[in-house]
Design goal:
399 residues; alpha/beta; Dihydrodipicolinate Reductase, domain 2; Rossmann fold; 2 domains; 9-stranded mixed β-sheet; 6-stranded parallel β-sheet; globular
Length: 399
């Protein structure tokens, strides 16, 4: 482990609360309607939190779209570009939680691979190529899990065809390309969503509510880290031409979380460790609008321990959010403050299921989503800024 990784672990560990097994009080979701910024699409779908010494975040079947909803009987049909490893987790499996969402088509660079993928996941149509999926009258939403350097190209093609889009993160290769996509989406009037699934999980909103309500007092400092060892240099995440790098693949999550919680951030410094322009470790240090010190860390260095953790220290306590990228994988929110302790567990539907529910609601009702193209523009510009400050070039779309 590098010196920066050791420093990161030590800094983060020093903020952890020392005790968590204390009773707390939990309010119903309906009370959150009075708080600014609470997303109504989630509020309308959630049940109340329970009272318990260690309380899970309880969800009801209201979280799931029901095709029996007479106002929105439309089935949202998804076509997939590529037999990508992430597709079952992000779309195919969580789509089964929703009676009004179907995965109907797939294409891949090799047809035999697409056929095997379709057979494995019970997808009814295998089409000849990506453009055929986009052009299909049976497809309402195009899901794009290609390498990041191709996201913009295929998103623009889908928008031009009048299709809604669910695009994997990072949204595009850079901020300039993201602006082009956002402009096209506005002009065509379609829903374009970055698949930042974590932001749709109730645990993120519970953390935001706790901070806004002053549960740990005035925020002094915050740190978010997402490290995953990726030792295989043949992995596309080590390929700069395909949009690789720790920040693009991993760091986009803590960056999004910190911006979600604290709004626009002023970058003070950034540094990266790289091989041939591919950042395998990067950190950024910011000041929030309220003057708090905010930092993000990310690494895909071999030997790195896998961790996804947010720690926020305030004048009245500490907030810790574990497994913030995949809350359904053991996520918890722990608040150790002057007013006592709260420990909330993530249970129920996955972040991916929540994301698809929001997507379907927007497609059916003509609404918007929190992680739309315009939000992604801001994220991509923030990524570009980090790269430049660290002495690296922002990524470019694949020609």
């Amino acid at each position: 482990m590098t010196d920066s990784a050791q420093s990161r672990a030590a800094t983060l560990g020093s903020w952890l609360p020392t005790a968590i097994n204390v009773q707390g009080t939990y309010w119903g979701f309906l009370r959150l309607a009075t708080l600014p910024g609470w997303p109504h699409f989630l509020l309308a779908r959630a049940s109340s939190l329970c009272r318990a010494p260690r309380a899970p975040l309880v969800e009801s079947s209201m979280l799931m779209h029901e095709s029996a909803n007479k106002e929105n009987p439309m089935t949202v049909r998804i076509g997939i570009l590529g037999a990508a490893n992430i597709a079952p987790t992000a779309v195919i499996v969580p789509a089964k939680d929703h009676q009004d969402i179907e995965v109907v088509a797939v294409a891949a660079r090799q047809r035999d691979r697409a056929e095997a993928f379709a057979t494995e996941h019970s997808i009814p149509q295998v089409l000849d190529d990506y453009q055929a999926v986009i052009d299909s009258p049976d497809v309402d939403v195009v899901y794009i899990p290609t390498p990041a350097a191709l996201h913009g190209r295929w998103t623009l093609k889908a928008i031009k065809a009048g299709k809604h889009v669910l695009c994997e993160k990072p949204f595009t290769a850079n901020g300039e390309e993201a602006e082009e996509v956002a402009q096209a989406a506005r002009h065509r009037g379609v829903v374009v969503m970055e698949a930042m699934h974590s932001q749709y999980h109730p645990l993120w909103h519970e953390a935001l509510t706790a901070l806004r309500s002053g549960e740990i007092g005035t925020v002094l400092e915050a740190s978010a880290v997402f490290d995953v060892p990726i030792p295989d240099r043949g992995d596309i995440r080590w390929n700069p031409q395909l949009g690789g790098g720790a920040l693009m693949d991993l760091g986009v999550y803590p960056l999004t979380l910190l911006r979600y919680l604290f709004g626009d951030l002023d970058l003070i410094s950034a540094k990266a460790e790289d091989i041939d322009g591919v950042d395998y470790s990067l950190e950024g240090h910011y000041k929030s609008g309220a003057g708090a010190d905010v930092a993000l860390f990310t690494s895909m260095e071999e030997g790195t321990s896998e961790v996804q953790r947010l720690v926020v220290r305030g004048t009245g306590g500490t907030l810790t959010l574990d497994h913030f990228v995949h809350p359904q994988g053991g996520g918890s929110l722990v608040i150790d403050g002057d007013g006592g302790h709260r420990d909330v567990l993530a249970e129920g539907a996955s972040s991916y299921s929540h994301m698809l529910g929001a997507l379907a609601a927007a497609v059916q009702g003509g609404g918007t989503v929190p992680t739309d193209a315009q939000a992604a523009v801001q994220t991509m510009h923030a990524i570009d800024e980090l790269y430049r400050e660290a002495g690296l070039e922002p990524r470019r779309p694949l020609a």
